[in-house]
Amino acid sequence: MVQYKIARLDASFAALSDATRRGVLEQLGRSDASISQLADKFHMTLTGMKKHVGVLEHAGFVTTEKVGRVRTCRLGLRRLEDEAAWIESYRQLWAARFEALDRGVEDLKRREKTSA
Amino acid sequence: MVQYKIARLDASFAALSDATRRGVLEQLGRSDASISQLADKFHMTLTGMKKHVGVLEHAGFVTTEKVGRVRTCRLGLRRLEDEAAWIESYRQLWAARFEALDRGVEDLKRREKTSA
DNA sequence: TAAACACTGAACCATATGGTTCAGTATAAA
DNA sequence: TTTATACTGAACCATATGGTTCAGTGTTTA
Lengths: 116, 116
Hints:
The structure is a homodimer.
Chain A: H1 6-16, H2 19-30, E1 33-34, H3 35-41, H4 46-58, E2 62-67, E3 70-75, H5 81-102, H6 105-115
Antiparallel strand pairs in A: 1-3, 2-3
The structure holds a DNA duplex.
């Protein structure tokens, strides 16, 4: 299997493991938004939302820019390439494994072992 | 965007956010393994590995079966379909968004707003 | 200038996570 | 029958997470 940037995968899968953060990403896909707007939409305090945005920003999924007193959040440049690649790679591994199982190879091995 | 099983996505992305657990999945893609073997390979106590396997099992990625004193771990039936689908859906959203940006639509809007 | 707004940071809280050790239980091997 | 193996569960630990409140700071608006 290909070698990925481990820490980055850790951070991005962790970032995606929260429904609120996935929601924020989907929202920012529709339009940019301020922290306040996001906090309002997801029924959360400003401070709470700021933390989520911080996580997304740290994972590279979001960038922010403060103009005046408003901080605007936008989708970042990362497009989940590494994550998609890991998952795709795993799916191939999985398919190959179960194909082998279907052929009965593994079952046979197991039977030989237990009957030995 | 399509509606996914939220709790499941939470659990599976969380499960994937740890390098050891991703490693275990890749290992199990090559061959089944006992808890001891996995613990050994990932330089960890039996108890620690058992917890990781528990997380993967809870997320549906792994199934286990105890025969005698050995618990054998195998890949489960889930093949990251929902996860792949979410990511793909996000990538499309992202692409559409940046395509719009490229066309300058957003930039124009922003300029109109600030100059108003 | 005064009041309202948008954010920021520190502190706190409960719970989860990733790991350990230690004390078992059950099975297999000598 | 003793001993070694493989796992299990409880307890513990440090740190992270997801949320809050409260007390600011800086910006608009009236």
